[in-house]
DNA sequence: AGCTAGCAGTCGAGTCTACCGAGTGCCAGC
DNA sequence: GCTGGCACTCGGTAGACTCGACTGCTAGCT
């Protein structure tokens, strides 16, 4: 259904010194090593490549090329007399130069479009399920950062009485999100007071953003004013301390891929990182403006992400970047597939939020 | 602050054949084995117990007792000539018979009461943070199941227009939860129509539970009726397919305690289980009516929980059980501490929701 | 100049052995 | 009924050895 995906991967590392452009065959060797290693998780030797790939050269030649690739920093040997495995730079070259999107396999493509054409849901549910979709497609953990509600406009504000002295202020935002906060009201105002306060509050705040709430104006009724004030401040306080909503899915994948992360507890530390909403959100937001992006291993500042790669894409609604989605997996991941999945899903998500 | 916790642990297993009541000293030996094993994670030998615990008997005697305890099914040896480790039955005896609540250590007790006396939050946030609190206290993964919204009463229903043809129906419930659903409206009704529909809807549904929404009555205006119908059905559909809200925290702990679970991927399977909201909710709800409860290892039907223990407690608001909280850890856990933590937190949570 | 074949060297992983020590079971004696 | 003592078991560790998958290098070929 969707047209072929074009994947303008932006180069994350600023790379400093220019390397000599890789000779054609060497590049093919590098590619072969990456693909083989991703497939098998074993260091790959010269012979494997010379025979299984049609390069038309002998293993000795491949060996020579590998020596060069290692000197240039694209490959390493875990130890002498083992095969080679790609370095972060090796993966980086792979992503940057062998970008020929095979697109998503048809079955997955169907899954995605089925998902988005099926019944619409409330914003939160949609984002959450999108995360699960992505995790299933890629078999990696996924993160989805939702739109910040401080940019959206209040469509409605109301005060609902729960119990005497306890009420809820509920604000409905133009993006379909709902913000609410509990109010403890002194003096137990009557239902009538609350209703008046709700009306006044709605009149005053309607149309403004959560980040820019106007100060409340007196109505003349002291009790009502008091309620309005409390409610307004509660809303303002809420948004102040608030983060973009975050949805993390597929964390069990991290435990399964354990072997691919450094030590046993490398995975545990990753899981812990993912539990810190604030950290993850700021991490993802920091990469928001770069389009479809890949962060490989040590390109991530965070120590915990040293053995991980991040594939992220923003999603765009009405021409505005409102959030981003992505996956988190071991550096040894299938980048083509991951990029295709993240790109397609982010596009479709944006489109699906459009209407 | 809180009075001493009384812990009426209900026996989960129905135990079938009565065992001969354990001789006093043997019980002490069993207890020592459990405590030692929980502390060290190593099979414990007769000598360790004979010396470090003041039982006043020699290691040979302890050995004899252990043989008996093993024959009775309270202990096992991982292999000949290793120390003993408790079986599920051993833990069960431990929990049932050595119940002397040491309460929470003072520091933790303070943490808990600070938590609950600090600023009140919206229901969802409170539950989520309570889960984190519990995870921190016990160092295990925690689950919190929130109140089902189908029992709560609608305090307010409104329809908010988002874009032409798109609106949101928002229902505020007496327990402070908010349910909402997106409406796709054909024929793009005017704002006025929507407002009228909202008023009509509120009048009709106010006071009823989500599970028992009355059928909508015609108002005479076709457009308005149509909106009311769509909105009512959306709300009804939403609650139909809906589960109690679930908050899972501290999953990284599972990865850390890995060793305590069977194989490496035992932990992975646990994590996966916890991602299936429906499964976890039904699991927890199934145990809701039993008060503070401990489920040890194979007492859990679920294969994945074979090496885990579950400590659960309902929380009570206005005399009604509305949800439950608990932790999930390896069978080798500190049950006294876990029970104390879960009991205190559940009580305080209930109390905190009361007002 | 570039590729290849062949060979020597390296090192991890697996296997085998021996050994140590923690812990048991059992028995005879107090 | 408890204890000391003794023989026995078996997991875990360390060392030696082999195997095999690699590499690097060099000489020779195209």
Question: How would you describe what is shown here?
Answer:
The structure is a homodimer. Chain A is an alpha+beta fold and about 350 residues long. Chain A has three domains: about 25-95, Orthogonal Bundle (Arc Repressor Mutant, subunit A); about 105-145 and about 245-355, Beta-Lactamase; about 155-240. Helices cover about 45% and strands about 20% of the residues of chain A. Chain A has twelve helices and ten strands. Chain A has a five-stranded antiparallel β-sheet with strand order 7-3-10-9-8, sandwiched between helices. In chain A, strand 1 and strand 2 form a beta hairpin. In chain A, helix 2 (about 45-50) crosses helix 3 and helix 6 runs antiparallel to helix 12 (about 335-355). Chain A is elongated and about 90 Å long. Mean pLDDT of chain A is about 85; it is low at about 1-20. The structure holds a DNA duplex (30 and 30 nucleotides).
Q: What topology, given as strand order, has the largest sheet of chain A?
A: 7-3-10-9-8
H and E order of chain A: HHHEEHHHEEEEHHEHHHEEEH
Q: Most extensive chain contact?
A: A-B, 40 and 40 residues
**CATH class category of the largest domain in chain A:** Alpha Beta
The CATH architecture term of the largest domain in chain A is 2-Layer Sandwich
Number of domains of chain A: 3
Percent in helix of chain A: 40-55%
Total number of β-strand segments of chain A?
10
Oligomer: homodimer
Helix count, DSSP H or I runs of 4 or more residues of chain A:
12
Low-confidence segments of chain A, given as residue ranges, are: 1-18
| Average of pLDDT of chain A | 87
Structural class of chain A: alpha+beta
Q: Tell me the overall shape of chain A.
A: elongated
| Main pleated-sheet profile of chain A | 5 strands, antiparallel
